[in-house]
Amino acid sequence: xxxxxRLLVAFLAATLIPLVVLGLFxxxxxxxxxxxxYRQRVDGLVRVVEEDLTRTRTTVKASLAELxxxxxxxxxxxxxxxxxxxxxxxxxxxxASTTMPVxxxxxxxxxxxxxxxxxxxxxxxxxxxxxxxxxxxxxxxPDATALVRARTPSGSFLAIACxxxxxxGNRRFILVGGVEAESRFLKDLSRDDxxxxxxxxxxxxxxxxxxxxxxxxxxxxxxxAGASALESATLRVAYDTHELRDLRADIDRWFLAAIALxxxxxxxxxxxxxxxxxxxxxxxxxxxxxxxxxxxxxxFANQRHxxxxxxxxTLGELTTRLRESTVQLKDAERRATFGDLARQVNHDIKxxxxxxxxxxxxxxxxxxxxxxxMAVVFDERSASLDESIAYLESLATNYARLSRRGERTHxxxxxVVRSVAADRSVPGVVNVATKLAPQAVVWGDELSLRRIxxxxxxxxxxxxxxxxxxxxxxTEVVRxxxxxxxxxxxxxxxxxxxxxxxxxxxxxxxYTTKADGTGLGLSIVRRLVMDLEGSVRVESxxxxxxxxxxxxxxxxxxxxxxx
Length: 563
Prior knowledge:
five-stranded mixed beta sheet; five-stranded antiparallel beta sheet; single chain; disordered C terminus
C-alpha cells in the first residue's frame, strides 16, 4: 500500500467514523425519545379506555338498580309478572322497550329465575325464549360486566352489559342491560388521527395482518360472553409512527449528504497533503537509490526545516560516514584478501611438499636398509617427485595470475587418484588403497581435481593420527534414469571421525579442529567442486571413520553445460 493510499484511508477513517457514529447516535436517540412519547400517548389512551369502561359499568349498574326499584314500585308490572294477567301482557312485553331509553341503555332483558325472557327492549320477539346462559356468564365475569352480542330486528351489535336482580315476593327476576360498544371505543376514543383503536372478538374469522407502519401497540383484554363460555376480546390501541419514519428518512438523507461531503473534503485534503509529502520523499528515495559503494557523492542538501529536512540531513551525514567507512573497508578487504591468498598458498604448498617429503623419507630409509637398490627405488619414485614439482609449478603459475581455475578439458579422474595415492603412500607407514571404475572422465582442469583429491586424502591420513588404519579412494560412474550421468569420487577412512557439531561447519573457511591446521582444506574443496558444477557431502561417526563423497558431471553432461 502506497503512502498516498495510507494517508487517504487514514483521513477517511478519521473523518467518516466519528460522523457515522454521531449519525447513528442521533438517529437512535431521536427514535428512542419519540417512541417514548408515543408510548406515553398510547398508555394514556389505554387509561382513558379503562376509565371509560369503569364509568360505563358504573352507569349501567346504576341504571339497572334504579330500574329494579321502579319495577318493584310499578303495580301494573307486579300484577303482570306475579299474576300473569292477560290484560297486562302487552304492558309486560312493552315494558323493557319503554324503560330502556329512559334508563340510557342500548339493550335490556327481564328474565325470571328460570331464564325465560319476560320482556326485551332491543328485540321484542325474544319474549318467552329461555336464555339462562347469558346471565350466568355475566355473573361470572369480573365486576359482573362483559361484552355481549345483542340481536335486533335489523342485525346485531356489541354491548357492554351487566347483570342485576330484584325480588318480588318469593320470586327473583334478572335484569340484563348494557350500552352499545362500537361507537364508544372505535369512534369516541380515536381522538387523534395517528391513534388507531380496533376491537377483535374471539369469534372473528378474519386473520389479523401485522401492520408494519405501526410500532407502538397496547392490547387491553375485555371479557366477552360467548355462546356457551366466557372468553376474551382484545381492544388494540396502536400509534401510527409515520412522523417518526419521515423524520428518520430526513435524518438519513442529511447524514448521507454530510458523509459524502466529508468524504470528498477528506479525499481532497489527503491528496493535497500526500502530494506535499510524497514529492520530497520521492526525491530522497531517488537519491538514496543511487547510493552504492562506488558512488557515494550524492548530495542531500536542502533548505527545508521540517522532518523531511531533518531526514535529508541525516541521510547526508550517513552518506559521509559510509564514504569514510568504505575506504577503510576496502583497505581491510584488500589486506584480508592477501591474507586469505597467503593462507591458501601456504596450505597448497604444504600439500605439494608432502609427497616430496614422503619420497625423500623413503629414499633415506632405503639408503640405510639396502643401499644397493637405491638406484632402482629412485627410478620408481622419481615420477612422484616430478609430479609434485609440476603441481607446485602449476600452483605458482595460477596464484601469480590470482586465478584458482585452469583451462578445462577432458580429465580422467582415475589418473589423478592413482597419482595422489602413489604420492601419499609410504610403505610400512600408510597405504592409500584405490577402487576405481573402468573410466571416470570429467570436464575440468587437472590442477583443481588434484587439489580436491589431495585435500581429501590428506585429511583422511591425518584422521588416522599416526595409528594403523585404512584410507580408500574410489570412483564410479552413476547412470540415472531421465537425468545426466555423474562421476562419484569417494574418500573413506577408518580414523577418529567427526562429531555432529563439527560436521555442520567443516566446510566453512578457517574452521579447524587441529592445533596446526589452517581451516582451508575442506573449504577449498567445496569451492573447487562448486566451480566444476558438482557437489560434496560427508558421512561420519565418531571413532568409526568418515566418508567424503564428491559428485561431478560426467564428460557427456559436462559437455552439455559447456555448450
